[in-house]
Design a protein that fits this description.
The complex is a heterodimer. Chain A is 78% helix and 0% strand. Chain A is an all-alpha fold. Chain A has one domain. Chain A is elongated, with a radius of gyration of 15 Å. By secondary structure, chain B is mainly alpha-helical. Chain B has two domains: 3-393, Sodium/glucose cotransporter (Up-down Bundle), CATH 1.20.1730; 406-487, no CATH class. Helix content of chain B is 76%, strand content 1%. Chain B has helices spanning 3-28, 33-39, 45-54, 59-71, 78-104, 109-117, 120-152, 159-177, 180-209, 212-222, 238-251, 256-263, 268-281, 286-298, 309-317, 320-354, 367-388, 393-404, 407-416, 422-441, 456-475, 478-485; strands at 447-449, 452-454. Classes of the chains: A mainly alpha, B mainly alpha. The interface between A and B is large, with 34 and 39 residues.
Chain lengths: 65, 487
């Protein structure tokens, strides 16, 4: 569980910071946005999902203990 | 009535209205800072959503993000990146800080430092640095308000008189309404500004270019590569955005006023739960950028002040009353955060600097007067900075971030790493801040290093962290550890 939490915590940083060299382009335009802007917007949703999952794990853990 | 009379009239109605609304809660009973901050948590889910989303819409997001999109292009997108990451940091950090604050009656960030390291001088140093880097943030709000007044007068009022008016408005708003005004007026401003930003952000691209994609294709044809990195700049490239995202995401909760907010949370779970949904609000920051890009294609003559992009496009394409409404909402977006910042800064000064040094024997009841004078003094300094050292809004925020991020090793390692020592904190903090000052004042931000262009705050943070860890390891004694475990 702890490993999973670490992965979920680091994933948004890898996506929004680590992957920038590969996302730095205008095309393809996705959802009307230049690719770099789309990448960051997708990163926002990813951070939301990861935090949601971590919160779920944490509250389950609290219930058990 | 002419256009400028209508738009200026609307703005002043807004400001006077907000001041009156802000005064009403204060008439019935006296509120203190804690009551105000916790009071916000009694709002229903929707009101809460607007308040949280609206906190994002300051002069920075509204004028600064559109101004950078207009002049810099691709590098602006960093603004979409850091907020979501900051909340991941906050998810772990805030629930740790909050119970310590409750247990030991802490109210400000220097209070926390004093508690962690048992050092009054380190706490004083933190307070002074905090005040110093809140000033550019304050300057940002004043400059923004000046720009709005200038645009709404259709250029009749130039920058300096416009900023003088802004200064008088902000200072009297804080004097009259205090923090009481913030919560009740924030809702009004947030709803109006959100409508304005989403409307113009979608209307301009769709009306003139058919769709968002249509606008970006047209921009890519007109200026190839402008929408990627480094866009319209020479050195704001991939390495700059990466290092800036590290600085801003780690620095977000190092702003002194956010620490105060986390102390007043009801319980750690509220903070955790909030952190989960906060990233989604960052989407709101996209819309001002869309306006900036539309302005770049639609305005024929290039703007001398890119931060005017949003106001200028509304001024050129819409009637005076529309400009007045946007300006009115925008003016509140500058004044309300400015009031919040001013009061936190003045509290930092009064509680952690004045009453710990020259005012040691002053009667606590008269401190409120010191805080009031501090408000005037700080606004004057910010006004002088805005007149004599003008800078783009985003640059001002980045300067502040570089400075406050240097608290990160001291606070985070101080909380989680048992071997942190006072000397390590001193050394890391001082070296970090000296580097920030030298690099920014020496115009070496971003710093070219090994083929990369690194954010000055990032270089300083890395050095700070290494020094902190090394000195802590050298000076750590297990005896002292026992005392610190009892947090």
């Amino acid at each position: 569980m702890k490993t999973l939490k670490i992965i979920l915590t680091l994933l948004p940083f890898v996506w929004s910071i680590g992957m920038i060299p590969f996302a730095n382009k205008v095309h393809p335009i996705v959802l009307g946005l230049p690719f770099l802007a789309f990448w960051f917007v997708a990163g926002i949703f990813l951070a939301f999902l990861c935090l949601q999952a971590i919160y779920f794990i944490d509250s389950k853990h609290r219930q058990n203990s | 009535m002419s256009n400028e009379t209508v738009s200026l009239l609307i703005i002043f109605l807004f400001i006077i209205g907000a001041t009156i609304v802000g005064l009403i809660p204060g008439l019935n009973k006296k509120m203190n800072l804690e009551e105000w901050a916790v009071g916000g948590r009694n709002f229903g889910r929707w009101l809460n959503w607007f308040i949280l989303a609206g906190e994002i819409y300051t002069a920075f997001a509204f004028l600064g993000a559109s101004g950078w999109a207009y002049s810099r292009g691709g590098p602006t997108f960093y603004i979409l990146g850091y907020g979501a990451l900051a909340y991941v940091v906050g998810y772990y950090l805030l629930p740790t800080i909050s119970p310590i604050g409750r247990k030991h009656g802490l109210m400000t960030q220097p209070d926390l430092i004093e508690h962690l390291y048992d050092s009054k001088i380190l706490s004083l140093l933190t307070a002074i640095i905090g005040v110093a880097f809140l000033l550019p943030y304050l300057q940002l709000q004043l400059t923004g308000l000046g720009l709005i007044i200038e645009a709404c007068s259709y250029g009749q009022l130039t920058r300096v008189p416009a900023m003088l008016i802004a200064f008088i408005l902000v200072a009297s708003f804080v004097y009259l309404s205090g923090l009481k005004g913030v919560a009740s007026t924030a809702v009004l401003k947030d709803i109006l500004l959100m409508i304005a930003v989403v409307f113009f952000g979608l209307y301009l691209p769709i009306h003139y270019f058919g769709s968002l994609g249509g606008m970006f294709e047209a921009l890519e044809t007109a200026k190839p590569g402008f929408l990627a990195l480094p866009g319209g700049t020479k050195n704001f490239d991939v390495s700059w955005v990466m290092s800036t995202l590290v600085v801003t995401s780690l620095g977000f909760y190092m702003w002194p006023h956010f620490t105060t907010n986390s102390f007043s949370a009801r319980n750690p779970d509220v903070l955790r739960h909030n952190a989960v949904y906060l990233p989604l609000y960052q989407i709101c920051l996209l819309f001002p950028m869309l306006v900036g890009f539309a302005a770049l294609l639609l305005l024929e003559t290039p703007l001398k002040t890119p931060d005017m992009a949003f106001m200028t496009i509304v001024q050129k394409l819409f009637p005076g009353w529309t400009l007045g409404l946007v300006g009115g909402a925008g003016a509140l977006a500058c004044m309300i955060p400015a009031a919040d910042l001013l009061l936190s800064t003045s509290m930092l000064f009064t509680r952690n600097i004045y009453s710990k040094t020259i005012g040691k024997r002053v009667d606590p009841n008269s401190l409120i007067n010191v805080a009031r004078i501090a408000v005037l003094g700080l606004t004057t300094i910010a006004l002088c900075l805005a007149i004599f050292l003008p800078n783009m809004l985003v640059n001002l925020l980045l300067t502040g971030y570089s400075g406050v991020t240097q608290f990160f090793p001291m606070i985070v390692l101080g909380l989680y790493w048992k071997k942190s020592t006072k000397l390590g904190a001193y050394a890391g903090l001082i070296i970090g801040e000296v580097l920030v000052f030298t690099l920014i004042l020496g115009k070496m931000d971003p710093l070219p290093l090994a083929g990369m262009n690194l954010n000055a705050g990032f270089v300083a943070l890395l050095t700070n962290l290494i020094v902190f860890v090394l000195i802590s390891l050298f000076t750590y004694t297990p005896v002292k550890a026992k005392k610190e475990v009892s947090l």
